Structure formats: structure tokens, C-alpha cells
Amino acid sequence: xxxxxxxFLSGNGTSRSLECPILQSPxxxxxxxxxxxxVRRWAPKALLFTEMVNAKSLELGHGxxxxxxxxxxxxxxxxxxxxxxxxxxxxxxxxxxxxGAFLIDINMGCPVKKIARKGGGSALLKEPELAKLIVKKVSxxxxxxxxxxxxxxxxxxxxxxxxxxxxxxxxxAQLITVHxxxxxxxxAGSSNWEAIKKIKDKLDIPIIANGDIKNSQDAIECxxxxxxxxxxxxxxxMGAPWLIGQIDAEIxxxxxxxxxxxxxxxxxxxxxxxxxxxxxxxxxxxxxxxxLSWTCRGFEGATxxxxxxxxxxxxxxxxxxxEDELIKLN
Length: 330
Ligand SMILES: Cc1cc2nc3c(=O)[nH]c(=O)nc-3n(C[C@H](O)[C@H](O)[C@H](O)COP(=O)(O)O)c2cc1C
Known about the structure:
Blueprint (H helix, E strand, L loop, with lengths): L6 E3 L6 E3 L3 E3 L8 H10 L5 E2 L3 E2 H6 L4 H4 L8 E6 L3 H13 L4 E6 L4 H4 L11 H14 L4 E6 L9 H11 L3 E5 L13 H10 L4 E4 L5 H11 L3 E4 L9 H9 L10 H19 L1 H14 L6 H10 L3 H15 L1
Parallel strand pairs: 3-11, 4-6, 5-6, 6-7, 7-8, 8-9, 9-10, 10-11
Antiparallel strand pairs: 1-2
Helix pairs in contact: 1-10, 4-6, 6-7, 7-8, 9-10, 11-12, 11-14, 13-14
The chain binds flavin mononucleotide (FMN).
């Protein structure tokens, strides 16, 4: 594996550098501000992303909280936008930049039907000219760097990911993250790291490899195969906000990472739950359920605790369950 170095993005006036080559995926419904705060505890310098934001909605004033919150971020934060209308994308990107975005990312990979049917996300993989136009217009309108997140194409038969990526580079993209699956694949099969290498070989801008990286061994293997400038981690970080920092430390051979034990996982769950409830009230409990059931794994009594947690009908009950578990451990 080549030695990874700081990634420099020059932008259109404002340059940025990425000191950590391990990036946290944008994860709709997961990578909210509270989750990101936890990720930064282990990886303060990593580039994190907002959940994807609909550019048109932002223009109309919806989803604006995802952008307003940017001022509270303590590290690099990319705002990820989706839409197919270049002017809406421009408007939203300007708004996100002025709210403190570290960079803007355009989603060209989301397979969700509701989004692709309207021409956004992965539908842009079928429209290379429109994709280029969006990148060109947005990159000219902002001074911070513009990055794009893609899949390998709509379906294998019709896709030419190297040509598509070259077009984005030419249009002004400063970095491309590639999830090594086509839209048609969804999450089936495995991420094609060899195909990512083909893109890396032909492009001059930094390439981030994504798909199926669950630990530092996977990251090292993926970097070896793709020769990418960094990797992005998605699903494996759900319930494990320490993973970005862990992989970063392990690939650098630093022995600083302390494996999370039951006490740490329960304490983290308790903190997560309390933060969500103080921000969102009862709805916070509903959001917390999935995070707690991902985090409370891999220790004695975890299955039983998860079963009880999903049945807790009030925040107070859920908090008591976690506190009782901590007392047992002390
Ligand atoms: C629950 C969930 C939400 C996601 N939300 C987004 C999103 O908002 N924007 C995006 O570009 N990709 C999104 N993705 C895709 C991931 O960022 C990532 O590209 C994909 O999961 C492959 O990486 P992985 O194997 O490390 O999970 C999402 C994936 C999942 C499972």
C-alpha cells in the first residue's frame, strides 16, 4: 500500500486540505449532527458529511436545519446536495457555503426510487452532459471545493465510469468518491474495487474508494487494489462511531485505539439517547432505538438488553435500562 498523504483541494479561491484519509459516508437517517459529534471524538480531523440535502427544498426553506447546524461543527464538514436542476444546485451550494460548509458534495449515486425517478442521485449517471453542467455551474458559483459521489454507473451494460468521471473532472470536480457498484446492483454483490482502480488510473484528481470496507484490513486491501487516495466508510460505522478513528489509527500503525468494551458502548448509548431526547423529545427515543440496537452488540447480555430497549416506551424507561446495565458492570 502506498503511503497516504494529505489531500489538497484547491477550490475556486478557498483551498482545503484533508489530513485524514478515512472519510465518513453521508448516511441519510444516521449521520446527523449528534452522530457526527461522536465520530469526531475518535477522528477529529476526518471529513464528515451531512445527510443528503434536497437542493430544491433548501431553496424553499425546508431541510434548512441541516445547514444552519454547520456553525456548530468542530471539524471538516461536507454538505451533500442532490437534485437534477443546475440552478437549484447552485442556489443551495451558495447557501451551504455561506453557512460554513468545508466543501460541497453532489450526490450522483443514491439509488432510492423516489429520488432517481425525479432525475436526482443515481439518475445523473445516465445523463453525463447534465451531470457535467451541474458540476460546472456549481463549481463556478462557490469558492470552496466541489466533490462528487458516484456509483459505477446505472447498470453494467451501459456504464463507462472512467469516461463519466473524466467528464466530472473536466467540469471542475475536485475529488470523486466511487462506490464500486452500479445503481442496478443496489447493495447486492460486492463493491468492485478493480473498477475503482481503473478510474484512479485515468484521473488526476483524488479518488476515494467506497463500498464494503468494514475494518482496517479491508481498508488496507482496498487501498492496495485501487491505489485510491483514501477510503470512505458507510454501513460499518452505523452504531460504531469510533470506526473512522480506529481505522485511521490502525492503518498508521498507531497503537492508540482502545477497543470499545461493554461499559463504553453502554455509556455511549446513554449519551446518544439523552442527546437525542433533549433535542427531539419523544421522537428522539424513536430515532435512538436503531442506534442503540447497533451499538449494544458484542458483549454479554447485549441481546437481552436490545430486546428490552426496543420495548421501552418512554425515554425514562430506556435511560433506566441502560443505567441499570451500567450498575451491573460496576
Ligand atoms: C442507511 C444509508 C443511508 C445512506 N445515505 C446516503 C446519502 O445520504 N448520501 C450518499 O451519497 N450515500 C448514502 N448512502 C450510501 C453510503 O454512503 C455508501 O456509499 C454505501 O453504503 C457503500 O458503502 P459501505 O459499504 O461502506 O456502506 C447510504 C447508505 C445507507 C446504508
